Amino acid sequence: MLQELAEWLEKRQEERAKLCADTVKCSGLVGFLYLELIDASFSLDGVLGAFALSQDIIIITIGLFIGAMFVRSLTIMLVEKKTLDQFLYLEHGAHWAIGTLAILMFVSTFHEVPEVVTGLLGLVFILSALASSIIHNKKQEK
């Protein structure tokens, strides 16, 4: 649902940029909402992860602040550089990694799944997607 809303906001931003004479003012609000939506999806993971590591509210607050600033900077950089356009399969790899995480979380209600397995599977999907994107880009150059 978040992905669909993000896509709708992105399309809406493109339509607004074409229709408005004052492009900066009109697309700025939609762009801000789009970035906040992306940031909110990352923040949910950060909150859950913070409680898994510590119950001290000061450590959680500091960790969330650092994480939010890092994720916000990373998100802005990736959007500005159009990274998903450069690495075609990276988004798909992320979806597969998230899907795998969901399945492993469900399985962990019945059987213990080591954290190493979860981390390595996510890493494998992301790195495979990155490698596939690089191979695809090299084929396109030839």
Task: Throw out a few tags for this protein.
142 residues; 2 domains; 6 helices; mainly alpha; 86% helix; globular
| Poorly predicted residue ranges | none
Number of helices: 6
How far the N terminus sits from the C terminus, by CA atoms, comes to 38 Å
Write down the Rg.
18 Å
Calculate the mean pLDDT score and round it. 76
Q: Care to count the β-strands? A: 0
- Provide the succession of SSEs: HHHHHH
Shape: globular
| Helix/strand class | mainly alpha
Number of domains: 2
> Major β-sheet, in short?
none
What fraction of residues sit in β-strands? under 5%
Overview of this protein structure:
The structure is a single chain. By secondary structure, the chain is mainly alpha-helical. The chain has two domains: 1-81, no CATH class; 83-142, no CATH class. The protein has six helices and no strands. The chain has helices at 2-19, 23-53, 57-80, 83-86, 90-107, 115-141. α1 runs antiparallel to α2 (23-53), α2 runs antiparallel to α3 and α5 (90-107) packs antiparallel against α6 (115-141). The protein is globular and about 50 Å long. The relative contact order is 0.07.
